[in-house]
Amino acid sequence: MTAPRVPGAQLRHGRVALALSFFVQGAVFALLVTRIPAIQERYGISDGLLPAFLAAVPVLAGAGSVGTEQLVKRVRAGRVLRCAQPVVCLALLAVGSVGSMAQAALALAVFGLSVGALDASMNMLGVSLQRAYGRSIMLGFHAAYSLGGMVGASLAWAGAHWKLSLALLYGPVVAVLVPLALIVGHWFVDRDRRDPEEGGAGSAAAAAPLAMRLLLPLCLVMAFAYIGDSTVSNWSAKYLQDVLGSSEQLATVPYNVYMVTTLLGRAVGDPGVRRFGAVAVVRTGTVVAAGGFAVVAAAPGAWAGMAGFTLLGLGLCVIVPQTFAAAGRLAFERHGPGASDMAVARLNIFNYVGFLIGSPLVGALGDAWSYRGAMLVPMALVLMTLVYARSFGAPEARYGDGHERPRTADVG
């Protein structure tokens, strides 16, 4: 089964548009999560209630991803993304602007549901566009997300530094990002599922059931990767300060270093996949990430700990984009493009599963045992990726030497 050719200029425009969409989402999500303390203070959310607020977002995002799997059987993924991204931006503004805790909870619920639809549809388009290109470009989209996250975190820092209200911080940003999202949405490459060469919603290919056991190894890899990521996001500062004895100011550095190395790793990851294949890149990333956790667990001081978090960024950054790409490719080869979208939506749920498990797991182990020992648990889980690494290669789409078979001419 082959994908129909799309003009090279259209593919390039679609690639830029989708990268901008990833960038917008990275910025918006960072603006939310980095200002959680300010949101808590604004609405008087107690420390006991805050975890429920925070857990509700990924739970509802998972529900949004499940809903998107059903929705894209009738509506193109590009249309879902064009609708969901402005809603996510406006929900962010509402979180910082409404007048009561109940209204803020409703805004966060809308944010969670729409971000699940957005994450799923973005990655559906990324997998589809990579298939049209015939070579690895998925890591570049996630690099744009990382860059957006860095920009959003920087804006959040500026808002905190200048003591801006949440409404004043979010308002101008959303006023720029919503029109940008609407404009770039017109350039998405979203091929018609009713094309007879692709198969359509009513075709045998699209109607064939997608067995969950086919995706289970990749789902586990996704969950393990996000357990590792959430460990860094939620515990790096506390670990450096409480365990390794750093200053409060220095404790803020590891996550920033992690974000920078994530961006760098993703920026150069696609050429690595083209040269060595996805399996080799994922195995290398897994070993590097596990080494990072080992360094963090054994670090004698703060600077050694930061070196470990640097390795973590370089290692973990390649796993998630390649997991989406592998799931989409595998489902496409077995059942066609409709199944590819279903696979991405289902896989996306395990993003939130890992996020929900990671932070409480490390916290509970740290309190009951030790935080050094707790770092070895996500290390062991990430290392499980080596067991499933062969799932990143699709036999139907590869040459005997393990490199991916190009499907279209090089379009730049």
Description:
The structure is a single chain. The protein is mainly alpha-helical. Helices cover 76% and strands 0% of the residues. The chain contains 16 helices and no strands. Helix 9 packs antiparallel against helix 14 (319-335). It is globular and about 55 Å long. The model is unreliable at 192-207 and 395-412 (pLDDT under 50).
Compact summary:
This protein has helices spanning 8-33, 36-43, 50-71, 77-97, 101-133, 138-161, 166-184, 204-207, 212-243, 248-251, 253-276, 278-298, 302-316, 319-335, 337-368, 371-383. By secondary structure, the chain is mostly helical.
Topology:
Blueprint: H1 8-33, H2 36-43, H3 50-71, H4 77-97, H5 101-133, H6 138-161, H7 166-184, H8 204-207, H9 212-243, H10 248-251, H11 253-276, H12 278-298, H13 302-316, H14 319-335, H15 337-368, H16 371-383
Largest sheet: none
**Which regions are unreliable across 5 or more consecutive residues at pLDDT < 50?**
192-207, 395-412
> What is the helix content?
over 70%
Q: What pattern of helices and strands is seen along the backbone?
A: HHHHHHHHHHHHHHHH
Oligomer: single chain
Give the beta-strand count: 0
Task: Tell me, briefly, the overall form.
Answer: globular
User: How many helices?
Assistant: 16
